[in-house]
Design a protein that fits this description.
The protein is α/β, with parallel strands linked by helices. The protein is built from 17 helices and 18 strands. A hairpin with a 2-residue loop joins strand 8 and strand 9. It is globular and about 80 Å long. It binds zinc ion.
């Protein structure tokens, strides 16, 4: 059985813990289909001659941490996969099937090893809107940008998109998915939401509905529901905010202006009215009880601030309205400081392990005055600091561990509002090869003592640029000490047909991204080289090279 410190698995194999970890067991059977799996309710009763896999959750390990222990003590190998809560056992099985074991003609070969890994950034989260999350490509209604959008896909599209995303996150150590537009009557309402959280929990992925305090629809984004903001304000029109100015925001790092037409989606409630905050708290309690999510993402609304006399008085000296002059800011930290604690408690009524994000909005991490109102925010929240690209370029030089240590809030995470549709030229950075910047963000976050990173995750990994960027996010977020060369060798090269092929592929993607306009001769050469390469590889690598050829070809058709 043992050859040079390897165990070979073939034929019948016992599995213990499959009932408690059905997805981990399913993944083993999926990846190693030639083995005949037999459930073992008691591992002590498994004959010594029969290989055994044990799956065990360990409460004393951090969430997502994994341990694989392969032993050849008796006649047959024993593979123990232990993991921390929520996702650790699943990550352990993925580590085993993707990186530790290999499948050959004689069976599954597993080296005699002890592997132990703990995620460095605990909070690794995708941020999404429902309407522009396009992971199921075989349906109509795709959108790519916007925050006040109707839903245009068939009603089943929501679950189709997000189940694919959950599958990817589960396999690649991406811990959570924030969803704005989580509840809509037009994509299945409460029932679809419940089905998604159930599906994701089974796969070790946290679903975090995105809500805003008196903005972005409240808790139930769109539909005839008591926790929908437009419905609430129709019944209680006196509760509406009196906005300082028109609704919307603009982004200096995006090369075109954004448009925010007025509609039910843009309605807002005054954050100084206690009844409004009580309504939000009730809605959050209903949310966590009804769909049992992995957490909640709470923001203050980023498209304007109530300027009524009560709000002005309440903010008082803590926050000058002039912070919002010249479109510098579109939100209020004082509003967040006054209302988040109550909403945090409401969300945590669903359990102490829920992840409750508190969005601290954009481009102010290095400005102590911006954070002064936040002294009273509760411990246990995850405080999210959002960067546009230009601010990231500044922060990666200036931000230190001391800055983060001195913040009034703990724990802290960075959210990238770039490497997505919200920054860049007319193409935006949505389909760009963002893997290097995700690696940098993860390394910087770890270096300065942040506990997490949030990036946009809307485009399908059918786009190879997105696929490799998401892989980088999962890998560098889990282990920021990973080197770029190791990532290229271990993760990118096997997907593209070899190391030399991977270097060429990344160079071509980077060239296309860096140049909004290229000569048609150059585009034709990129296309033709990619077509040649596609003929020289097998499996999924064909799809990846064909995608590159098509990407160049589309631009060739456009003449630039
Ligand atoms: Zn007000």
């Amino acid at each position: 059985m043992s050859q040079h410190g390897h165990a070979t698995l073939s034929g019948r194999i016992a599995i213990y813990g499959g009932d408690a970890h059905p997805h981990a067991a399913r993944r083993l059977a999926e990846e190693w289909p030639d083995l005949e799996w037999q459930s073992a309710p008691d591992p002590a009763l498994v004959p010594e001659t029969m290989p055994l896999v044990e799956l065990l959750e360990r409460a004393d390990m951090p969430e997502g941490a994994l341990r694989i222990d392969v032993q050849l003590a008796g006649g047959a190998p024993i593979i123990r996969v232990a993991g921390g809560p929520y996702s650790g056992v699943i990550y352990g099985v993925e580590e085993l099937v993707q990186r530790v074991a290999s499948v050959g003609p004689a069976g599954v070969s597993v080296p005699v090893v002890a592997v132990e890994r703990t995620p460095k950034l605990a909070y690794r989260t995708f941020w999404t809107w429902d309407h522009s999350t396009n992971w199921e490509l075989s349906q109509v209604g795709h959108q790519e940008i916007g925050v006040f959008n109707p839903y245009g896909k068939p009603p089943g599209g929501f679950l189709k998109d997000y189940k694919r995303m959950v599958d990817f996150c589960s396999r690649h150590q991406i811990a959570a998915i924030v969803i704005y537009g989580f509840f809509r009557d037009s994509h299945g309402g409460v029932e679809a939401a419940k089905e998604l959280t159930r599906y994701a929990r089974e796969r070790g992925v946290r679903i975090l509905p995105g809500v805003a305090i008196g903005a972005y629809g409240g808790v139930y984004w769109e539909g005839d529901h008591r926790y929908n903001l437009a419905t609430y304000l129709r019944d209680n029109p006196e509760m509406a905010a009196d906005m300082e100015r028109g609704v919307g925001f603009q982004l200096a790092d995006l090369s075109f202006p954004l448009n925010f037409p007025q509609s039910d989606y843009t309605r807002t409630a005054c954050p100084s009215e206690p009844a409004n905050i009580q309504w939000m708290a009730d809605a959050l309690e209903w949310l966590v009880e009804t769909v049992e999510p992995g957490g909640v993402n709470i923001e203050g609304g980023d498209y304007g601030v109530c300027g009524c006399p009560r709000c002005v008085t309440r903010r008082g000296e803590r926050e000058a309205a002039s912070r919002r002059d010249n479109d510098a800011e579109f939100w209020s930290h004082a509003d967040m400081a006054d209302n988040f604690p109550k909403l945090f408690d409401a969300a945590r009524s669903g359990g102490d392990d829920l992840w409750v994000y508190c969005e601290l909005q954009w481009d102010n991490l290095l400005d102590p005055a911006a954070h002064a109102p936040l002294e009273a925010l509760p411990k246990g929240g995850i405080y999210q600091h959002t960067f546009n690209r230009a601010y990231w370029e500044r922060a990666k030089d200036e931000l230190t561990a001391q800055h983060v240590h001195d913040l009034p809030t703990q724990a802290n995470v960075i959210r990238s509002q770039f490497a997505c549709q919200w920054n860049g030229d007319e193409r935006t950075e949505r389909y760009a090869f963002n893997a290097p910047v995700f690696a940098d963000l993860a390394k910087t976050s770890a270096d300065v003592g942040m506990q997490g990173l949030t990036v946009w995750g809307e485009p399908s990994p059918y786009h190879v640029s997105a696929e490799l960027s998401y892989l980088a996010f999962g890998r560098f977020g889990f282990d920021p000490t990973l080197s770029w060369a190791e990532f290229m060798r271990g993760d990118v090269a096997p997907r593209l047909g070899g190391e030399a092929e991977a270097e060429v592929f990344v160079a071509r993607m980077t060239e296309l991204d860096a140049n909004q306009v290229l000569p048609v001769e150059r585009l034709r050469a990129i296309r033709d080289d990619a077509l040649d390469a596609a003929r020289g590889v097998t499996g999924e690598a064909i799809r990846r090279w064909s995608w590159l050829a098509d990407r160049a070809n589309q631009r060739l058709y456009m003449g630039q």
